[in-house]
Amino acid sequence: MAMIAHKCAGHQVTVVDINQSRIDAWNSDKLPVFEPGLDAIVEEARGRNLFFSTDVDTAIREAEMIFLSVNTPTKTYGVGAGRAADLRYIEKCARKIAEVAEDDKIVVEKSTLPVRTAESVKRILESNSNGRNFQILSNPEFLAEGTAMADLEAPDRVLIGGDQTPGGLAAIQKLVDIYATWVPRANVITTNLWSSELSKLTANAFLAQRISSINAISALCEATEADVDEVAHAIGTDSRIGPKFLRASVGFGGSCFQKDILNLVYLCEHFGLPEVAAYWNGVIEMNDYQKRRFSRRVISAMFNTVSDKKIAVLGFAFKKDTNDTRESAAIYICKDLLEEQANLAIYDPKVEVAQIQKDLGIDADFDRVTYCESAYEATEGAHAVLILTEWDAFKTLDFQKIYDHMQLPAFIFDGRNLLDLDALRAIGFEARGIGKG
Ligand code: UDX
Q1: Considering only CA atoms, which of 68, 75, 84, 88 is closest in space to residue 261?
Q2: For residue 84, what pLDDT is reported?
Q3: Which residues contact 325 (CB under 8 A, 6 or more apart)?
Q4: Ligand 1, from 256, 284, 434: best to mutate by most atoms within 8 Å of Cβ?
Q5: How many CB atoms lie within 10 A of CB 287?
Q6: What is the chain's alpha carbon radius of gyration, rounded to the nearest angstrom?
Q7: Read out DSSP for 71-92?
Q8: CB 393 within 8 A of CB 413
Q9: Closest residue by CA, ligand 1 atom 11
Q10: Pick the catalytic residue: 93, 256, 334, 372?
Q11: CA 147 to chain centre
């Protein structure tokens, strides 16, 4: 919404939430999310044509177009628990719009939703329409965290789905016009509602599948003399495969991949397609295996015990340039190692201590985990260093200095293939990467 406000000075954009402290943060100097480049754009548009407010009703009444951008977490209760998307927030939004709106509205699904959710939104709105006309569009978001501003500035494509009726096509055109302010028209794809909803789940499933595929190969590389980065480069130069999203890692995380695939799996089962469900579920299983495999390798390399050993964990976010930890592989690795009674010293340049405690399910007095202000503090006296997030700053650490202050043998496990293992070995480290024999 900040990008739309930034690009379309003639439109007024009002972001509303029932959470007062969230809105206060959006109106302050410290935004509630860390995203490179976002501050500047918010600052430029805020108060001009970008507003943050808790007055939901007024914003609904005044808007011509309403984006539903609430979260759709994996359901934790009842039918479909652990897999289906929890749509209660979406439904509440639809009911709120039906209750408050005084005239026609275009309602845009921005949240990632299961296929045919628009149908439910439409039915709720239409059965309470009282003569008002509601058009539902699907406009999934493909930005990635950490590069969100660049992704929004020059998206590969913008996808807009809507009813293929005169009213639906007119609504699609209105949203096309907004994006066309800065996105070349050829990059704006329009489809029917269901194709748009399904494309978002499919895009995430394909991206995650590439990572699980290269991670599967990384296990084979470790068992042989192959190097997964060399394999990835060799296959990525095939223009049909392409070089992106082939970085072997400790496992993918983030708010989308796992949730969306679980959702896809659930949908396939719901529509009586168990083989298709099992196929996509394999992507998740491979990711779980990759995370478990990493902690097992750490333990077995360290003479089968990490009990009472100090292990430095560098990076806790699910990827670099974000403070987001949702589904971060680091959470799983840390929990595995804590179960083996290791002592962890965690450093991440952006993640807050309270967040780490929440993710690990521990409180401030839990004494097996310490939170450090720098990588040097975390590695002081440690038996092993784990790189779990690919922060650029980790590449230029003084590893000689780190080695000099560690227990010997000094282990380093690079879960992101970020570092030069040969250089580390020359210092004296027992260095291991992902998919390196
Ligand atoms: C993803 C999609 O990329 C985006 O289009 C969608 O809108 C939201 O979900 P995001 O989760 O922000 O975006 O990050 P992404 O860059 O896709 O990375 C997801 C995870 O995969 C991270 O944990 C990342 O470290 C990991 N990853 C990515 C790899 O392990 N290897 C890779 O080659 C790429």
Answers
A1: 84
A2: 86
A3: 253, 316, 317, 318, 331, 351, 355, 356, 359
A4: 256
A5: 26
A6: 24
A7: --PBP-SSTTTTTSB--HHHHH
A8: no
A9: 254
A10: 256
A11: 11
Q: Is 152 exposed, middle or buried (0-12, 13-18, 19+ CB in 10 A)?
A: buried
For atom 10 of ligand 1, which residue has the closest CA? 144
CA–CA separation, 389 and 319 (whole Å): 5
CA 318 to chain centre: 7
CB atoms within 10 A of CB 436: 19
* Dist. CA 55 → ligand 1 center (Å): 34
Which of 199, 246, 252 should be mutated for ligand 1, with most atoms under 8 A from CB?
A: 252
pLDDT of residue 383: 98
Ranges under pLDDT 70 in the chain = none
Cα dist from 124 to 86, 96, 134, 192, 373, whole Å: 17, 10, 10, 20, 50
Active site residue 93: no
Q: Write the residue with the smallest CA distance to atom 5 of ligand 1.
A: 142
Q: What are 14-41's pLDDT values in tens digits? A: 999 999 999 999 999 999 988 999 999 9
Global confidence as pTM? 0.94
Res 113: pLDDT: 85
Q: What is the pLDDT of residue 112?
A: 85
DSSP string, 194-261: HHHHHHHHHHHHHHHHHHHHHHHHHHHHHHSS-BHHHHHHHHHTSTTT-STT----S---SSSHHHHH
